[in-house]
Amino acid sequence: MPTRSLPESAPGKYVPYHPEPYYSPETLPIEPKIEISDQTHDLVADAAYQIGRVDGISSTVDFSAVLYTSLIRIEAVESAQIEGADVAYQDVEAYHTQHPSGETDTTIEKDLKEALNYENALTYGLEEIESGSSVTLSLIKELHLMLLEDVRNDGDVVGNFRDHMVHLPSPQSGQRSFVPPSPEGLDELMQSLASYIQMGGQYHPLIDAAIIHYFFETVHPFSDGNGRLGRLLIILYLASEGYLESPYIYPSAYFNRHKVEYVERMRAVSEEGAWDEWLMFFIKGLRTQAETSYSRTHQLRELQQRYEREYPGSTSTDKFARQLLQYPYFTAPDLVEYLDVSRRTAYKIVDDLEADGLIEEVTGKERGKEYKAVDVFDILQ
């Protein structure tokens, strides 16, 4: 399709610009309103049911705080991996074990820092929403600063909208790049986004989350970090609408597995007005992640019950085995603090649980050994 001639159904237009035209979307709300197919309505209902199941099961487990933190960290890792970072969930857990007081380590690798930044930004954003704040442009810019702390590239504008054009390469070989709006149009477009969010949208929250995400990624308001911030905004919007009572649903894993389709579906909205296909893709992603979160929580609950059956005694080893889901990554000295036991007892607990196969050492070092709960990690990863 010629880039300068789009059908009336397209929610924007290409604007002549050298060397390539840029795409300028219409401001929100979308006019005329999107026609939602019956199939999409059914999918929304199914996804809502799956999300409700996660809320239901998560409230019945006594390790919900650990599950909450673990899923945020998994989302942070998946989001960083989409951007090409070489980082694993275990790396994030190891970092927090090595830095329990939250002090900043300026020597860590950029890939790990990207994941940690995402975790910090998402946690902060959720705290702001829970305290009654709304998703404003000021908050969006603040989150951008957090995401790019110590990982920015020279020339990037951080904490404010970009002041230059950007070109987004297509994941499809041979397809031209997508050029988002010029810097001059960003303020109006982003203000319309903020207003749309604060008015609560026009549709079901899952549909509005898809519209908001598409619009943010299409506008591409920052010089870097748009993908990470756009995925984060999905969760913040659903939380701000009270739709996620406990935010255990994170989309990055699904987008990571379907990166090409993810980009193509959004581009088809811009150039063809193919809203329904994008909405179905997006909502299927949230439904899939809700199913995954439910399955993980169910498996962890069964694991907890198994540990309670197999370690019913009053020994320090038995007591810690029953608490293993709360401390899935640790060092032997950590147990001294966690359990208020001697170092000798802490090392005996480690020896006992390692012999039983519940934990394994992960560093390969003679000193400063770190341990992970094998079954817990198998479920979470």
Automatic annotation (TrEMBL):
Record-linked PROSITE patterns: FIDO (PS51459)
Domain Fido residue range list: 135-284
Highest taxon in the source lineage: Archaea
Family annotation (Pfam families): Fic, Fic_N, TrmB
Name of protein: Fic family protein
Organism: Halorussus aquaticus
